[in-house]
Each structure stands twice: as C-alpha cells, then as structure tokens.
Automatic annotation (TrEMBL):
Record keywords, A-Z: Membrane, Transmembrane, Transmembrane helix
Transmembrane helix recorded as keyword: yes
Transmembrane domains' residue ranges: 12-33, 39-57
InterPro entries: Uncharacterised_SCO3924 (IPR020246)
Taxonomy, superkingdom: Bacteria
Protein name (Swiss-Prot/TrEMBL): DUF5326 family protein
Pfam families: DUF5326 (PF17260)
Length: 70
C-alpha cells in the first residue's frame, strides 16, 4: 500500500486526495469544528461569569465588613 502511494505523482498525493477527503467529509469536519468552537465559547463565557461573581462577592463582603455593619 505504501509503495502504491509513493508511486503516485505529487499532485495526486498533496492536492487530489485531500480535496476528495474534504468533499466527502466536509460536512462532518465543519460540524465538529462548529461544535468545538461553540463549546470553547461557552467555557469562556462561564469562566467570565464565575470571575465576575467572585469579584462582586469579594467587593461587597469587604465593604460590608469594613463599614461597621447595619
């Protein structure tokens, strides 16, 4: 199999075969990449919201304890 692949011209190995793979599996590749990017965005939004929550809790607990209470 490897010998057959090596005997092919360079343009078949590096242009035609990847083009065929992209045509056949293009939809799958696109949906997987879309899912991964969506997951990364959701993780980033979640981390930002948690950081904001921690910031707000620390800010209000520090101001209420140093303010002498009610």
């Amino acid at each position: 199999m490897r010998e057959l692949f090596r005997s092919l011209p360079w343009w078949v190995r590096w242009v035609a075969i990847p083009a065929i793979v992209l045509v056949v599996f293009g939809g799958l590749i696109t949906s997987v990449l879309t899912w991964v990017m969506s997951l990364m965005f959701k993780i980033l939004v979640c981390a930002a919201l948690i950081a904001l929550l921690i910031f707000l809790v620390r800010k209000f607990t520090a101001s209420s304890s140093s303010g002498g209470g009610w």
